[in-house]
Structures are given as C-alpha cells and as structure tokens.
Structures
1.
Amino acid sequence: MYAVTGITGKVGGAVARALLSAGQPVRAVVRSADKGLRWAQQGCEVALAEVDDAQAMAQAFSGAEAVFIMLPSNFDPSPGFPEARALVDNIRQALQCARPSKVVCLSTIGAQATQPNLLNQLQLLEQALGTLDMPVTFLRPGWFMENSVWDIAPAIESGVIPSFLQPLDKPVPMVATADVGRLAAELLQETWQGQRIVELEGPRRITPHELAETFARLLGKPVSMSVVPRDNWHELFSAQGMRNPLPRMQMIDGFNEGWIEFAGTARKGQVELETVLKACVSIHTP
C-alpha cells in the first residue's frame, strides 16, 4: 500500500494516478471524506488526517509500504517559520510512529541554500526527516511551470505580463507537475538504503521571454513580459495581503541571482512548457 499526502493537489494527484496506472494500491490521505470521494471512486483506500494531527497521520501511514510526503505550501509565513516547524515536527512524529518501509518527500530546488528565503521551510523538512532511521528520498523539482497560471489574466487583458523573474532572457529551471508526480511514483516503487536526493527539471530551461512567446502562440495575440522593479516588490506583495513578503522576495532573488540552483545533475522531465500552458489556458478561459 502506498500512502499519498497532498493527493487533492497537482503533484499528489499525479503521484496517485501514476501508481494506480502501475496497478499499485493507493491510500489517499485527505482532510475530509468529501475530498477523498473521487479517489475512493477510483479504487483508493481513504484515510482522514490533518497535517496538524500527528496521531491521525500516524494512523493514516500505518501499514503502508511507502509514504509520499508533502508539506502544505505557505507563501506568507511568520518570521522564523513557526507554522512550518510545527507541521514538520508532526510529520516526523507520524513517520517515526508508523515506520513505513520507505518515504519519498517532495522538497525543492535550492533546499540546500544557506541564504534566508521562503524555501528554507523545505530545508527544515529535509533536516527533520533526514534523522529518521528509514530510507528517505528527497525529490527536489525546479520552478513549477503551472505557476504561470497567474500570468493568464494579464496576458489576456493587456498582453503584458509583469515578471518578477529577471532578467527576462535568463533561463529558469522549470518542470511540469505531471513529471514530478510521475518520477515520485517511480521512486516510491524503488528499493534503496539511507537518504538520497533526486533533482528534476523540465526538458529545457525557460526564459520569461519564452513564457510570453508561448502565451502569444496559444492566445493568438501579442504578449510580452515587463520587469517589475525590485524596489516595488514589498509594496505590491503587501497590497495583495501578505504580512511578511520578505521570504518570498528572497526566494525570487535566489532564482534571479542564481544561488537557488540544483546541488547536482538534475534528471530531465518530458513535458514541454507549451503542453502545460495550453492546459492552463483551456481551464481558465471560456
């Protein structure tokens, strides 16, 4: 049995679909029965557990051959990441109690970076799970191509997309969530000892200019990128309701300055940017 957290999201869902396609039994770890219904209909066992309930998670992981772990995203954490620290501790406790044969943990490119930034939350997760006496794989993907869903509205409305990634001709390591989920499912089915790191990016790196060009082809209209000056970020993010924009700003700095990067040689995914953006546009346009 393979227990999958985050199954209602893009990556967790892709993991589950890949395992089911391989004929493997899947346990969907969800917060409510309603969220598990569609997975139950696909033949999954359903376990109810909140990430803030270590005991419930331990029960959800109990008897599993392997567990896929995701830390819920928090783009506006409090200083020092107290929210992430509490959840990381719960996850570690649950795994230590359930003792599955192996764990695959979704981490991120740049989890090894020493500079303060938003992705330090996943560094905390790696550090905690790295102390477990069981096989753990940390899967570190690049920037998700699906993040470009936020660019659809400005691309349609004005033809100009504000870009925090800069300079506009700098290639960024991006990857489709379908590739992340497929690789995670493969890793869950492997046998290994100790801890290991597996890094993943798409078939090729993508510049902001190329993002705009791809949107232009799909929308059939001119689309361009416009640099958002660094001095404006804090005000813009605060206006969007963020209480603590600095970690997010530092993360983007890391991509732009090149210190958020893979630690080794990353594997290559198969899904091209245009495939991902085409699906995103079809969902978010009439």
2.
Amino acid sequence: MSAVFSVRVAVAALAVLALQGSAGAQALKPFKDDLFAYPKTLSAEGMAYRVIDYREARDIDERDEVPERRVRRQYVSTGVRSVQEDLALATEAGTVRHVAVGRRSGARIITVYLHGQGGSRRQGVDDFTFGGNFNRIKNLMAGNDGLYLSPDFSDFGDKGAAEVAALLAHYAKDSPRAKIVVACGSMGGALCWKLAARPDAGRLSGLMLLGSHWDESYLKTESFRRGLPLFFAHGSRDTVFPVGRQEAFFRAILARSPSYPARFVRFETGTHGTPIRMADWRETLEWMLSQVR
C-alpha cells in the first residue's frame, strides 16, 4: 500500500468518525421510548406531516390507572424528583417562580414548558397527569445533561413574555452552549410567538406548539427568516383552536419557504389536551437539535 493511499484512507476514516461524532452529539439517551412511541400512522407526507391514530379508549383508559388523573406506574420514574427544585428568581421583569429539573449550569439542552390558561408551573412537572408525558421530559433532560424548566408568569402578553425571557437569559448565562427549546401548551402559544419576535430570539433553537394557535405575524420575524424549527401537534377534534386553522398556518409557512424546518402531527379524534399527552418529546427534540447549527 502506498504512503499516499494510506494517508487518504486515514483522512477518510477520520472524516467518517467526525460525522459520526457530530450525529452522536445530537442524540438523546432514550427514556421509555416503547411506551411513548406514536400509535399507527394513518397517513403521512414524509416526516413533515403525519396523521396519527389516536383512540381515547386505548390512549387514556388503558394507559391511566385513574383516567386523566393518574397514569399507570410503568410510565413514570419518580427518582427524577431528586434533581427537581421549586425556585424563585428575581429579575428585572419581576420575580419568576419556576420549577427546575436537572443541570442548572453547564446544561447541554434547556427545554421549557409554558402552560395554558388556568395552569401553573406545577402542571409541567406533574408526574402522573397527561399520561406521564411530563415525567418523561423531566427524565429525558435529567438523563441527558439537560435542564427542564416549568415557570409561572403574569399573563400571556408582553409582561409574561418578558418574565420568561428573563428566566431564559439567566439560565443561558450559566449554560452558554445549551440549545433552548420552548414548548407551549394551548394559550401558552401566545408567549411562544412573542418570544420568537423579540430581539433576543436568536438564542432559541425551536418552538413546540401543543394544541396551540397560530400567529401570521411570525412570518415577518427574523426567527422565520433564519428558519427557527417549529413543531405543531394538534387534535382533530380540538374545539378551542380548530385544527384546520393551525394546519392552514403550517401550510402557509411551507408555501413561503418549502424547505422550512416545520413538522405537524395531527392526532385523529384527539381533543384539546391530546398533544400534551401524546407528543413524542425525544423524537421532536432530536429533530430540532439536528436542524440547529
């Protein structure tokens, strides 16, 4: 074997290893993936748009020990509470009460959940409601050098957005390399869109709209222009925010920018709270991490 050929082989091998390392850096260690995997896909347009077979009898009644109140034990691991704290952060926007789970400094990824009307910071850390899905995101963050935050905020307007932004800035300072994904349930989506329109929106790595609403003004933001990853999950029988309006907004994004990093999961027969129960955190976060440079 010639010296030149040997060098070429070595360089090629190093390139492959570098690519593997880069891909591996985006991967999250699993947590109960088999239990939280999506049910059957009824139809799909690649991974961009999927219709999932949701059934209340199976996905609530069989999954929960007490329907909608307490999931069966195999779906949760409460040991994660050992790295969970209820905190109050003094900021220029006011004091922000929040629950933090995982690494509060040096985090690799920060995931934030913003509740809807009538909720509180406690909703996002309840281990047993919503089919155990909040317990799953807590364990995913704790098991992957991440941080999970579930805050209170004053309103769904500018004040609430300023409070959440101040919370993010505080933790981003202690975890400067962390990717930040904000998930918004129902009316919490108003804060997602406001955060995306702020001058400091460049720190965001993705938004998850869970049974939430649309905002056409997003199409005029720098976040849209830079391709901030968006994930929409919606129940087909949502009577609060009709699925057709959210789907139309999703289509409008792709019409403006066909390669835009956006995904939509529609839960057929699902209602308003279905996406919070059924959205696959790990699949979505890994996809978002793969989009961010």
3.
Amino acid sequence: MFFEANFQEISPTQECYNVFVTDQQNQPQLRQDLVTGEWVVIASNRAQRPDSFIKKHLSSFPSKKAQQNNPEKDCVFCQILKKEVPILAWSNNQKITPDQYDDWTIAVVANKYPAFIPAGKVEKKRCGPYQTMTATGYHELVITNSHSLTIDQMTITSIQEIFTVYQKRYRFLARQPHNQYVAIFHNQGLEAGASITHPHSQIIAMPTIDANIENNLIGTKRFWQKQGQCPHCLIIADNQKNPNRLVWENEHFIVFTPFAPKSAFTLQIYPKKHQACFDQANNKQLIGLAEAFKIALGALRKGLNNPDYNFFLNSAPCDNQNHHYYHWHWQIMPKTQIWAGFELGAGIEISTISPEDSAKYLRKQIN
C-alpha cells in the first residue's frame, strides 16, 4: 500500500489518508480570515482523538520523569511497523525492506488524524464574503525508534539521519501537484503540543502559502531589491562581527538568538551558504546541521532544565516561483512562558531577558 519493492518513495493514496475520515462533511477544510488573509484549518476529523477537548491544566501534566517512564509496551509508536505499513522505513541511513523492520531507526507513516489529505483537486468556494479551500495535501509523521531519547540525546549520525529523511520527504512532497508549501516541525513535550510522549516530528504539505509566510517572503524580497543583498545573510554577518547573540557555529551553520525574539531563549539555526530551499542542502551540510541541533538543544536542556519546545523549518515555497532571495533556516522555541492578554492582543512579546543575555547564558552551557 505505502511501500514498494524498488524502494521508491511513493505518495499514499487518497483512500489511505481518508480511512479515518468516515464523514465527508468532516474532511479538513481551509478557511481564510477576511481581514488578515490568514488561513485556518478546520479539521473536525481530528476530534476523534481521545480526550481532545478535555481541559487540561499544567498542574495535571505528567512530570518529565513520569513521561520518560511511560511504558514502552503501551506505546503505539514503539510498535509502529507492526501496526502500520510505512511510507518510508530506514535503518542507520539506509532504506529497509519489511524483513528488516526489526532493526528500524526511523519510520515515516501517514498521520492517523490528518489535517490535510490528498483529496484530488483543490476546490475553492465562496461562503458568503469568505473563501474556503479543500485542505488537500499530505500529513505525515516521522518517528524515531527510541521511546525515550530526545534529539539532543542522540548521536550526530542519528540526528543527521532524521534531517536526511526530512529532506527526502520534503523533495518528494514539493513535487506533488497542488502543494505550495511543505512545513516540517517537531513538538517536544505536552506544553509544546505533543500528545504522544514518544519523540516524533510532523510534515505537512499544503495547497496554499499562509499570510505570515507570505509576509516573510515579501519582507525578504523587498530588502533584497532595496539593499541588493539578502537580509538573512546580513544577519549572519552581523552575528559573526558582533557576537553578543552568537551561541555557537561550525563550518556550515550558525546558531544565535534573534535580535527581536518572539519569546525568550528562541534560537535560529542558519546555513552560512545562501540557499533558498532546505532541499538544496548537501550531505556535509546535513552533518553540520545535526551537530548544530545537538549543541543548541543540549544547551537548552542543560540551561533551562529540559524545557518543552517546538522547532520548525522556514524554507521557500514549492510553488514553481523564483525565491532566490530567500534564505532557509530552522527556529527553536522553548516554552519559557505563556502569552497573556497584551501579547495576544497587540502581538508584541514582553521579554524579561534580553537575547544578548540569553545567548551569553546558553554559551556557558556548552561543554
């Protein structure tokens, strides 16, 4: 169904993705905000998830120790290849066949509760003054074998394997009809939105470019046209010249706290070479990226007592347009505080620590 004997990465069929959507009216739908132009996914099918709307308080969350001690025998992800036919299965940087599944290190499967499904054509409709669109696309899970090891605790080789798999799925999904943007993200911990303890990432390919992403592209292009250079390259150069916000760097990547962060201890990881898309990174760069992530996440773990966090990719869209001016990068956002009324209403973060002090503190956590 998902796996071919010649190991070609294939797209799961629409039926495979729709198997958990029993009501056509509950299939995911994109709705656009009339004022901001931002898109929202209405995915009623995801409400099938147990306890999805029960209010949970931070005090009721399991402790880190309790999460780590969650029995592996009860974890569906630990036994994923015995329960699901994967889109892609790997073992130590090699694709594997079903007879080798006992030695798997990474599995990619279709999300059981997808926000986007391959439903054929993208249909746009008017609903009064509003615009809707079918949430046509793909929603995949990237699952690592270990039930307890987080990314910073893995070897650089194992982390590189994760990014290699990310890139392979990115390249495939970027070529599929209707896909305009491929989002890759990782939620670590309950406060970061991870409902399953076992470490995993998600990849979503979607038929539109959100207003926030569009604004980022527009701002980058505008700067390029006015100043004749990439603003992201300028940021990298400034961090090397004035390293107050520099956390760490190697030959290919630089890790720093942004000048105007949206939350305390936010980290950005940039390739030093100007590239618009993540899929342009070569193998040496992926090794350097793995090293950068291990250092960055390790510093956060040590310095902030193993916080929950999100990380996500910022890359140029796959919409067949020329985005040469953009510069792909990753962003890590630890859960250091909860947005309150002012942050939500004005959209402006009030940070009680400067990014310069954050960087200085994190540098001290690196051995």
4.
Amino acid sequence: MFEFKKNLYKLYYRRKVILALLQQFGGSLTKLDLQKLLFIYTTEKTKNYFDFVPYKLGCFSFQSYQDLNTMVKYGLIAEVQNHWLSIDKRNYINELTYNDRLALTELYQTYKDIRKKKLMQYVYKKYPYFAINSIVAKDILNSEEFNIVQQSRPENNIMGLYTIGYEGKTPEYFANQLIKHDIKILCDVRKNPLSMKYGFSKNQLKNIIENCGIEYIHIPELGIQSEKRKNLNSLQDYKMLFDDYRKTTLTNAKEPLNFIENLITTKKRVALTCFEADYNRCHRNQVAQAIIKIKTKEYDIKHL
C-alpha cells in the first residue's frame, strides 16, 4: 500500500531540487542549513525555484517547508528532531537539468564545510534584507554588520491605502511586496478566504504574513458572494457586477469601511487584498474608492 501511494505521488521539479540537494550533502541537513543552502542555490546558482521571506532565523521559504512535509507524508524523506533525512533511494541528482546539476556541485564544493552559525553569517552579511526579522542577527553579527541589517528594513511613514492581488504570486513574493512597502496591516476583503493555491487560504496567509511582522484582518462583510462572480467574461460583466456591489454591499457597509479608514489614520499603511491581479477586475478597488470618499486625512490609493 505504501509503495502504491509513493508511485501515485506527483513529484514536482522543485521537490526534486530539494531531494537532490539533500543527497548532494550526504542525505542529511539540519532544517536551518537546508533553508540557507536552498536559498543560496536558488538565488545565486540556478533558477528561482523558491521565493523566500525574512523570517525569525533569516531567509525562509514556506513553500519549501510545505513541500518537505508533503514528502515526509509520502515516505521520500524523514523528519528527525531538527534534521531532514533523505530516505528514498532514487538518484534525484541525475534527474536535474545539466545546469542545475553543475550548480549543485558548485554549491557543495563551496559550502560543504560551512554550517550553522557560519552559514547564517554569510547569508546575513550578503543579503541583509533577509535578516531584518531575525531573532539572532544581533548575536551573530558585529555592530557594523547588524546596523546594515537594520538599515535594510523598509520604512515609510507616508500614509497610504494599498491594494494587492495574489493571482500568479507565491506567498513569499506576496509577503515581500507588503514588507518592501512597509505595510502594517493587511485587510482580506474576500467573502470566503479559501484558495486552492498554497499560502492564500485564511489561516495560511495569516500565519505567513504575521510571522513577517504584518497584522492580518479578515473583513468578510466586504466580500462578494461566489455565485455573483460566475460568468464574468467581459468588462461589461464586471461593470454590472461592481454597479450591483456598490448599490448593495458598499451602501450597507459603513461600519467596516469606517473601520478600515480608521486603521489607515492610526497605522498609516494598510493594504486590501483579494485574488485578481488586475485591480480593475477586483472588488478591492471598489472598496478602496469607497474609503477614499470618507477619508479624514490626505492619502492616495496605490495598487501593487
């Protein structure tokens, strides 16, 4: 039964990259070292198979962690204390492209004897942005290096209302957009915050962005019923949808609209989120326009 499940399991190429990296480094890596080596590999050596965010111990990929746990489920790797162990006998290194195999060899030759603190120091010094949320940066860097990390934190005190869609984005890329624009609060204006895409259902998204230092608030009162979103094929369809939305939902949504407007005046930088990449085809723009009409201080709408 176990072998049957393994054979049915779909192995994405990015997961083969993780397995090949583990095998290249002897079949076992600490969770911390794997994240740092995977970051270097995808950032310096090859394609961007994973995105990363500045996290508690530096660069971290939520997608890779999800992949690792999925591969544990299917018996490809094992989680032992703070290590990931490769237990599948298949040679995943040979299943990479030529350039990726070459890059993996170069990675191993460069970092085979560099682990833990030294590896963290290297990443923190070369990529200080990814250390801005680290709880150990001050302890492992000298004062000058730590100051550079602090200076890498995006800061913007200009009041603003932002909107952002997650269509076509990884959760890490999405979170980095918020961080780099110094968003303080993300307001999810979906009626039902569920997504087939990893990282964007309510609890997943809340966990990711709050671990990046951004508050998450779900405001379902501003969402659109899913049945109203069917058969949207033209700009005219969207126009009719949003005309109805303004006349019904927004007309009766004074309390949540005032709530968001108050967040902007107190926290300064707030973003509204929903699915669509194009804000013209998303009701978050209608929410933003409604807030602008009741604003008590001067600020603009910006679409990410």
